[in-house]
Design brief:
Shape: globular
Order of helices and strands: EEEHEEHEH
Helix content: 25-40%
Length: 128
């Protein structure tokens, strides 16, 4: 870990898609005045330092994202209800040459996780 508490060779991946059946548009809905997806992005920046936001949501504009977050347009074939998360992560690894990186998956729909939860999980991962 670095002095700022981030993990050097890691990158956070925040997957959000438009097609929620249970609560349409949930990833853009505000929670405490901030869109749900943006909570995960900010947390990734605080704990990991770099974030890739994988999405098919047109309303998410790259110019409104915080520094350190890169918008990655998700292909249509990876934006279905039954698309396995592994396929989304594999796509990010190939598209962004992340073969040697530690991927930290931050689901936008888990807004109650804490920064310490992420750091503890990464410590556990590194210790084997």
């Amino acid at each position: 870990m670095t002095a700022q508490g981030t993990i050097r060779d890691a990158i956070a991946v925040v997957p959000v898609r438009a097609g929620s059946k249970g609560l349409p548009g949930k990833n853009l809905m505000p929670l405490a005045g901030v869109p749900l997806y943006l909570h995960a992005v900010r947390q990734g920046l605080r704990t990991v330092g770099r974030v890739l936001l994988s999405t098919d949501i047109d309303e998410i504009d790259e110019t409104n994202l915080p520094e350190g977050c890169v918008l990655c347009r998700r292909p249509v074939h990876l934006a279905h209800d039954d698309t396995p998360m592994a396929a989304v992560i594999d796509h990010m690894i190939v598209e962004h040459s992340l073969q040697d990186a530690t991927i930290v998956l931050l689901q936008a729909t888990s807004p109650l996780r804490t920064d310490d939860d992420i750091r503890s999980a990464m410590t556990l991962f590194r210790e084997g």
